[in-house]
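Now for a sample.
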Amino acid sequence: MPTLAPALRSVLRRQRALLATVSAAALAVVGLIALPGAATANTGSLTQVSSFGSNPGNLAMYEYAPAGLASGAPLVVALHGCTQTATDYYNDSGWAQLADQYGFAVVFPQTSSANNALSCFSWFDSTRDTRGNGEAASVKAMVDYATGQYHSDSKRVFVTGLSAGAGMTADLLADYPDVFAGGSIDSGLPAQCATSQSAASGCQQNNQNLTPAQWGDKVRGSDPGWTGPWPRVAIWQGTADYTVYPVNATELRDQWTNVWGISQTASGTQSLTGGTTESVYDDASGNPAVELYSISGMGHALAVNPGSASTQCGQTGAYFLNYICSSYYTAQFWGITGASPSPSPSASASASASPSPSASASPTYTPSCYTASNYAQVTAGRAHDVGGIAYANGSNAGLGLDNLFYTHTLEETAPGYYVIADSGCPA
């Protein structure tokens, strides 16, 4: 799900899609469908709510809660990537698993091709991603419905998303700092980076050359008059992401540290599993306000780590890659795993932090082969478009015009890294 593609250019040329995903498995609804006006009794499966209030964004609401959920529990909102569905995110992101383990409810909003040709959340459209409007207003209505239904703690409502869902997450945090206590932006973009489809591709690929204060102003301008408290924000980014380039993580760091009024220099860093480097930015009280997780070699994806250990979660799939259970570390940062957020590593600890995983512990990967038109390769997130020319993600090998008439075979030799393999695949 991983790619954030916002706009199709035309039938033959499309601005690179923010998308993420692979063709999403059909919209199978897991669980019972709620009757109008009320959700069905929770049975431990994903459930659709057919009427949750005002819905100007034309979204569908799905929810999950463990049986016997106590009043006063947290609520998490989790947004899928382009061409994905709520079911995809429920199955693979790890949030349902963590809800069972730690006791909270999860809302999975779902958009559709009626809103965007690639079923992307409209993070780049100011008529849909601003306070009181469109999809943002629909998500807020879902939060109001779910907090009433589950008697959730209104001070512990959080939002997370991947790719286009991450772009919308950043916007929601800026739009509703009075609603969300924290957020997690996975392979996403800064709040209000783009305000039109034509500007979206530039945000995905290019440094916008804004100062931290200019980035911060985009958040402050989303809810004028709000002076805090601000949401605590986790940022996840793969270093080999050629759909949403790593510069976006730096810009997100600049944006949210500026909003918090803190330094862009990390209070501490440490190494985590899966080649992950965690950088922590403390508030004035010494508590983590912003955290940046950089995952070495990961492409455009949500990082998961299937398994039964307490720090593992999720399932691998298209745009769900096996590095680290990002959802677990995010939940820990938010303080909803039963413990306070981990203190920032000290400067001296950065050098002696837990070592990077050994080669034997590194994620294993079986090469995959894909033969398709350049247009289809770009749409699926295996290639990207620059000036109408398609380039393979990772290797940046030129494929020719981004259209339906040129076809290549791409081999994914590592997660998110593709090479041309027209002479035979696997090589």
About this structure: The chain has two domains: 47-361, 368-420. The longest strand covers residues 288-295. The two ends are 27 Å apart (CA to CA). The domain at 47-361 is CATH 3.40.50.1820 (Rossmann fold).
